[in-house]
Every structure is written in C-alpha cells, then in structure tokens.
Amino acid sequence: MAGGFGLCGIPEALIEAIREAGVMDLTIISNNAGIDNVGLGTLLQTRQVRKMISSYVGENATFAKQYLSGELEIEFNPQGTLAERIRAGGAGIPAFFTATGYGTDVAKGKETREFNGRHYVMETGLFADLAIVHAWKGDSEGNLVYRKTARNFNPMMATAAKFTVAEVENLVEPGEIDPDHIITPGIFVKRIVKLGQIEKRIEQRTVRKRAA
Predict the structure, then answer these.
(1) Where do the domains of the chain lie, and which CATH numbers do they carry?
(2) Percent of the chain residues topping a pLDDT of 70
C-alpha cells in the first residue's frame, strides 16, 4: 500500500527506495499511480509493478501503455469502495456489502445480496505485506500527524499492513505531540524515516489570469 492522492501526501522517498531495491512483480494498492517520472510512476517505468489496485490512473501515460499492451493488470475500484476496503482490512473485517457498483462491471464475479429491497455487492477487505505512508510530523515512538489534504489515504493504510514504514517531515521526541492530535498511533508503525529537504509538487497548476 502506498499513501497519497495524486502527488499530495505520497511517500516519495520510500517509493524511490523501493525502486532502488529493484524488487519486481509488485502488486500495489494506491488510489492512483502518480504521473510519469514522479511517485509510483517511477516504478512503472522500471517495470517493477505487475498489478495495480486503484481508483484513478488517468494522469499516467506509461500506465496506459503498459495496461493496453497487457504488461500491467488493473483492479479498478470506486474510490469510496477502495477506501472502505482498506479501512476494513485494517479493522480485521474480511468483507462487507455496498450498493456502489451493483449492476455494473464492478460487480461481475462478486457475491450480491438484497437487504431491505436494495441490492448490494460484497467487497473484500484489503491487507498488505507493506504499507508506506507520508506524515507531516512523527515521534520516535511512531505516532503520526498528517497535514490537511496530505492526510488522504495515509492513516487507513498505516493500519492495514503487516509492516508499516512512515516517512516524516518533522521528527520530534515522544511526548512533544499532543495526544489529542495523534492520527496514527505508534502501535501501527514499525519504522520511521526522517526526511531532509522535500519538494512539494503540484500535479496540475491552475491560476487565474492577471488583470490587464
């Protein structure tokens, strides 16, 4: 599992470490596959990814080429379903029913049931061998705080893996984070990586035109 949404809150340093390690045939659970040359897109370029379990992959030309040529497998999920599958995995819930996707290709091959006159699709929880997440602040006990939109998929993914590694922008001593502000308790985090200087990338820059 790799946190982030677009290029916001992605564990870029940890993705680069995986690229350098050269591990192949990866199945990656992530909302999207980054863009060409950035984020998970770098693992696609080195062909280290065999399968993506995602919600949106429309910003990556390399992804499209590999998928259309049969090199890459994709398991699409409605975004809310993907989030709930991850949350369920972290909570130890093996499966749940959702109305989203019933009657569409999303439901093909899956169990369906009717509750109170409405039809539902059974989706399974997701649990990974490894989760990599990005946090704004963390302490040496593994407690994490995320900043604004960069929170996205990171907290739920941190709970849904056998081994979670977090990269943090600011590393502090235990007790320096207000307990009420902790989003991911350290019990879920096995390793912490302190980041140096980081680049805050903008996926699509949109500005209003200046007045004449």
Answers:
(1) 12-124 (3.40.1080.10), 128-194 (no CATH)
(2) 100
Do 95 and 117 meet the contact criterion of CB atoms below 8 Å apart? Answer: no
Question: What pTM did the predictor assign?
Answer: 0.92
Using the 8-state DSSP alphabet, how is residue 198 labeled?
Answer: -
Print burial letters for 27-47: b (CB count within 10 Å at least 16), e (below 16).
Answer: ebbbbbbbbeebbbbbbbeee
Tens-place pLDDT, residues 155-208: 999 999 999 999 999 999 999 999 999 999 999 999 999 998 888 877 778 888
Q: What is the pLDDT of residue 198?
A: 81
Give the Cα separation of 201 and 212 in Å (integer).
29
Average confidence score pLDDT of the chain: 95
| 26 vs 3: CA distance, rounded Å | 16
> Dihedral, CA atoms, 114, 29, 59, 133, nearest 10 degrees?
120
Cα 27 from Cα 143, distance rounded (Å): 27
Question: Are 153 and 3 spatial neighbours (Cβ–Cβ below 8 Å)?
Answer: yes
Q: In sequence order, which ranges of the chain are alpha helices (DSSP H)? A: 12-21, 41-45, 61-68, 79-90, 154-159
